[in-house]
Write a structure and sequence with these properties.
The protein is about 30% helix and about 15% strand. By secondary structure, it is an alpha+beta fold. The protein is globular and about 80 Å long. The N terminus is likely disordered.
């Protein structure tokens, strides 16, 4: 089927298979938008396809569940809710993604595309599902298998216009939703559901802007980034034009997403109402959400300071500081590294004699209030409170050099873990036009370029890096008239002058709708902005009132990284590993970037790393005085001096690379707690290292390594050997204890998998051992550490690093059922402590031994008592009911749920600790 239409999307709808369904459509004909709107003729000639160079040799594959199509008309939503039907391509990648759990042990190169899409450029003639030409200079071809848009433009404007048009075809409602998230006004748009309140309360305080601020960022890119900046904004405008063209056509043709009706924006009978036009500043708002989720790093210094104070109160200043440093683990010599050849990249290290550190007075710290003036549902007992800050470190990468592969070419398996939403935050596309040649994934709403994917003869991906690009400053409060300041004061000293803070606020009111029955309500969100960032806490230091502020180097620069992505899409720029690194240098967010072509694999860590004074400790708050500011700091546009590209961790040609948000390289200071001797990166390293040692790595063997790690319990693989050694240090005379030990040992010996007995059984092998570990871990950590640390310090340390992040734990921005697991936890602390108790070597021993006070017998008793308690816990107690699962359903508690942000629901799938979008690539040739 071929269309040369400027109007509706080329989408096939599911055939109605029952008389009841047909009756529903007939009944709703006057109310519902057309399922297959008529097309209008395009003006001008059909664009001529461009020749495309593809050097992958059918060895590039990718996957992005649940499916490409994220839009559904009102009719499609109602049919789905009544009969379970799905629009075409809404969920057709989910089953293949899920099936790798059972299928990976027998995976061969020939079977890779049983579990992934063919990511070759173009669409074979017999696989064309539809072709749309919204302008004469661009063609959007969609393939039958996945419905991915392959966008070919004969002009650069047409290419970018097509990208915007295709994005709106696939994600119009989602893009609209997230531009409101970024602006902090989601609830008036989508309703006052607790989840909506939580989203705007989570994201807006991280990047609060006025409309003038957003426009200033657009202008800055256009005027200060040279020719590429000008071109980027032209591409962005063309992209916006494409979105708005589809927006208008779908509204007039009544095939727009049905959520606009369900939320009360458009009348289903008269079609009255409007989908607000998109504008360039929406891209900045959307970029702030993406960057806030995945590209930040650092911060949390107030919580770290509270933990340090608690440690000093427990042990005294000197020993308390040593205890705190042991938990902080800035430079653990046993930490798994991405650059493992010994190269050092010093950054954010502890100075020998720190100056300007701003520790609060004990008991004086209060978090800054965000929400005010609640009314209606916002004032009720179930109203949402601002969510606690959530660490975001996701995604993994495995690369093997050509010297260690079977073909002699590098092999890569990599991708971002971006959670599971329906539709997904990312969308697939291929872009071919003047200066652009790429296929891959892009965040909906900012998809004028491919952000993670492949070019003609290279592929790239990223993991969240999280290095320290956010600092906390203690600003001294003052009163403009010279009066005595209080902790409530709204002026502060800036370079000696009493300066008023700037108040930014949003008043959000919502009404109940068909989509969201939350009763009417409203509230006001308010933050105070200073030259040193956004106020997060208030306290006193030596009795003087201060405000703590968070300053992120990428604040006011949310979309500057567009230059780097433009370069990555440009085949005339990226020609090899070094030019790839030079492109990644232009990305200001904190990411680890990975690259593979037919000759080299490479790595580069990006981010605007501010240059701090040499005597400032970046792990703790610092006084807001000019001598402690970032070098060259100018608050007008939040600019400073940044570490040069050569100072960033990077490598070309290392034998292999792994990354799972672990420490990047020797000397590169960890921005938070948890980068110790045990990390989920070990799950990859332990599997890739033997492949490299043996040689002959293939796409299939590297995918098997990733998939095996994805179903492995880190605690069981890395900690159970030591836990069992302690427990077996004396004979057990308790049958219940012995049975629990034996079950755990059998599970560990079998590979410590959280995996079904057979595909579709929804029952784990070694289910009792998995349940025991899930119940035991929090109990054993408390028994191991709390007696020695004392309750206040134990609680303070738990506040900076959660104890556990099992698959069924309610962590992350989407809560439980989110896939990503075992990133943040006390694995390293338990590992090193138990080795100390067992008398085994520890490269950097902690200053205290906690389990049993260092006594093996007492440690064993503590572990045995908590293990018996855990073994007795019922499945219903370990896995309580939630909105998805019945109490006691272990498989369901772990399972991944595609969180709906629209009217479609998708089936649960097996837990996998795996990238959401993933590539498997091996290039056979190079330009």
């Amino acid at each position: 089927m071929r269309r040369t239409a400027a109007g509706p999307p080329a989408r096939h709808t599911a055939r109605l298979r029952t008389a009841a369904a047909a009756a529903l459509v007939a009944l709703g004909a006057a109310l519902l938008s057309p399922l297959a709107p008529a097309s209008a003729a395009a003006a001008g000639d059909t664009p001529v396809p461009l020749p495309i160079a593809d050097y992958c040799g059918n060895q590039c594959s990718d996957i992005l569940p649940p499916g490409q199509n994220g839009n559904a008309t009102l009719a499609q939503i109602l049919l789905h809710q009544a009969f379970g039907t799905m629009p075409a391509h809404a969920s057709d990648q989910l089953a293949r993604y899920d099936s790798l759990v059972a299928g990976y042990p027998g995976l061969t190169d020939a079977k890779v595309n049983d579990f992934f899409n063919d990511a070759s450029f173009g669409v074979p003639a017999d696989q064309v599902e539809s072709t749309t030409s919204p302008r004469p200079d661009v063609t959007i071809t969609r393939d039958k298998k996945t419905g991915v848009p392959h966008i070919k433009g004969t002009t650069r404007y047409g290419t970018s216009f097509g990208a915007g048009y295709a994005a709106a075809q696939d994600r119009l409602w989602q893009m609209d939703l997230f531009r409101h998230v970024g602006r902090g006004d989601l609830t008036p748009f989508a309703g006052g559901a607790l989840a909506n309140q939580g989203l705007e309360q989570q994201f807006w305080p991280q990047a609060p802007y006025t409309e003038a601020d957003l426009q200033a960022q657009v202008d800055r890119i256009r005027t200060t980034e040279g020719e590429r900046g000008r071109l980027a904004m032209e591409d962005a405008q063309a992209y916006i034009d494409g979105i708005n063209t589809y927006r208008t056509q779908s509204k007039n043709g009544r095939y727009f997403p049905g959520e606009y009706v369900l939320t009360g924006h458009i009348d289903s009978v008269t079609n009255a109402g409007e989908i607000q036009p998109f504008k360039l500043t929406d891209l900045i708002a959307l970029a702030s959400v993406v960057g806030g989720l995945f590209g930040g790093g650092g911060g949390g210094e107030v919580q770290a300071a509270l933990a340090l104070l608690s440690a000093q109160q427990r042990y005294g200043v000197a020993e308390g500081t040593r205890v705190w440093e042991s938990f902080r683990a800035r430079e653990d010599p046993e930490a798994v590294l991405t650059v493992h050849d010994g190269t050092s990249f010093p950054y954010a290290q502890k100075p020998a004699s720190p100056q300007g550190t701003a520790l609060p007075d004990a008991g004086s710290v209060t978090a800054e209030q965000l929400v005010y003036d609640r009314t209606g549902a916002a004032a009720g007992p179930g109203a949402a409170n601002p969510p606690k800050p959530v660490k975001q470190s996701m995604s993994n990468a495995l690369l093997v050099s050509g010297a260690k592969s079977a073909s002699g070419h590098p092999v890569a398996v990599f991708g971002p873990q971006t959670g599971y939403l329906a539709p997904q935050l990312l969308m697939l596309q291929e872009l071919q036009g003047p200066g652009i040649s790429a296929r891959g994934a892009s965040f909906a709403g900012v998809s004028m370029y491919v952000q993670l994917g492949r070019g003609q003869d290279y592929a790239w991906s990223a993991t969240s890096a999280g290095q320290d690009i956010t600092d906390t400053f203690a600003v001294e409060l003052c009163e403009p008239g010279g009066g005595a300041p209080t902790r409530a004061s709204t002026s502060y000293l800036y370079r000696g002058a009493c300066t008023p803070m700037e108040k930014l606020e949003h008043t959000n009111a919502w009404k109940s709708s068909v989509a969201d029955s939350t009763p009417n309500g409203s509230y006001r969100m308010q933050v105070w902005r200073t030259h040193y960032g956004i106020v997060t806490h208030r306290a006193t230091i030596a009795g003087k009132p201060v405000a703590y502020t968070a300053l992120r180097s990428t604040y006011r620069h949310e979309a500057d990284s567009i230059i780097g992505f433009q370069m990555l899409n440009d085949p005339s720029y990226v020609k090899d590993a070094r030019t790839f690194q030079q492109a990644a240098e232009h990305i200001g967010y904190a990411f680890n970037w990975f690259y593979a072509d037919a000759r080299e694999a490479a790595y580069y860590n990006s981010g605007l790393n501010p240059v701090r004074p040499a005597d400032v400790d970046p792990a703790l708050p610092v006084r807001a005085e000019q001598r402690y500011e970032w070098q060259g700091f100018d608050p007008t546009a939040n600019t400073a001096a940044y570490t040069p590209p050569a100072a960033h961790p990077q490598s070309i040609g290392q034998d292999y690379y792994i990354s799972w948000n672990n420490k990047q390289a020797k000397g590169y200071g960890a921005a938070g707690f948890g980068m110790g001797a045990v990390h989920r990166g070990d799950l990859l390293d332990k599997r890739v290292k033997p492949l490299v040692a043996a040689g002959g790595a293939t796409r299939a063997s590297l995918t098997r390594a990733m998939a095996d790690a994805a179903v492995t319990d880190l605690r069981a693989e890395n900690l159970l050997p030591e836990l069992l050694a302690v427990l077996r240090s004396a004979p057990s005379t308790d049958p219940a204890l012995t049975a629990a030990i034996d079950k755990l040992a059998a599970w560990q010996a079998a590979g410590a998998k959280r995996k079904e007995t057979a595909q579709g059984s929804k029952t784990y092998a070694h289910a009792d051992a998995v349940r025991i570990m899930d119940a035991w871990w929090p109990l054993l950590i408390e028994a191991e550490f709390k007696p020695g640390l004392g309750a206040p310090l134990y609680d303070a340390l738990r506040a900076v690093l959660s104890i556990d992040e099992a698959p069924n734990a309610g962590h992350g921005p989407t809560g439980s059922h989110a896939g990503s697991a075992f990133q943040y936890g006390w694995w390293s602390y338990a590992d090193e402590d138990l080795r100390m108790v067992l008398g085994r070597p520890v490269a950097d021993p902690p200053s205290q031994v906690y389990c049993g006070g260092g006594s093996l017998t007492a440690c064993r008793d503590a572990l045995a008592a908590t293990l018996k308690q855990a073994a007795a816990a019922t499945p219903a107690a370990v896995y309580p009911a939630d909105g998805t699962c019945a109490a006691g359903n272990q498989w369901c508690a772990d399972s991944i749920v595609q969180r709906p942000i629209g009217g479609l629901r998708h089936p649960q799938v097996n837990w996998q600790n795996r990238p959401t979008y993933q590539q498997v690539v091996e290039f056979a040739a190079h330009r």
